[in-house]
Amino acid sequence: MIENQTVEQAVEKAAEKAPGEYLHPLPTAVDGSALLALAVDHHARAVRSVGVREVAGHLVKLYVIEAPERTLAERELEPIVAIAGGQLAGAAARGSLGLGVLIVHAGGDGDYVLVHSWIEGYMSDLAIFTGPAGQPDQLRPGRAGLAPCVWEAAVLAHEREAFVRRVLDGAGPVAERLAAWAADVLTGEVR
Question: Are 60 and 50 in contact (CB under 8 A)?
Answer without folding.
Answer: no
